[in-house]
Amino acid sequence: MCVADGGNNRIQVFTSTGAFIGQFGSLGANAGQLNDPARLAFNGDRTTLYVADINNHRVQAFEYTTPPPMILALERAGAAITLKWSSLPGRTYQLESKTNLSQTNWSTSGGTIATTNYPAAVDVDASEAQRFFHVVLLP
User: Fold this and answer.
1) Cα separations (Å) of 58 from 29, 30, 52, 55?
2) Is 51 within 8 Å of 40 (Cβ atoms)?
């Protein structure tokens, strides 16, 4: 769900359950900037969001894509870590990791994860002294 936040010159994005997942826009008159956004509309396949930019006297079109997942918390319990991230219910994610940030490639950590709620969570092995994680939204 997208909400025009005219007083803050931005568009806020929420899940269907009302959890905040992102925002875009800032005060200004350049492309991508807003000055009192007031009305929103999607095209038929929900890939373009049209914003009535009231004080700039225009309508702007934004390519609308699903926001990338963001890691929200890591909670350690013994030899396991519970990793929580922003997720969209019904979407599939892949957890990837590496032990050194200078490594070029990320390694897949387990199988794909189909989410049913926000935030999503998964337990991972924490036996290594150092591990970096990121979450990838799959098509």
Assistant:
1) 10, 11, 6, 8
2) yes
From 51, 12, 14, select the one nearest 34 (Cα to Cα). 51
Question: Which residues touch 131 (CB under 8 Å, ≥6 apart)?
Answer: 97, 98, 99, 124
- Residue carrying structure tokens 């992102």: 22
> Where in the sequence is the domain holding 58, given as residue range(s)?
2-63
CATH number at residue 130: 2.60.40
d(CA 133, CA 24): 25
Global confidence as pTM: 0.54
pLDDT tens digits in sequence order for the chain, 139 residues long: 899 999 999 999 887 677 787 788 899 999 989 999 999 999 887 788 999 999 999 999 988 776 677 788 888 877 788 888 888 777 888 988 888 888 888 888 777 888 877 778 888 877 777 888 888 888 7
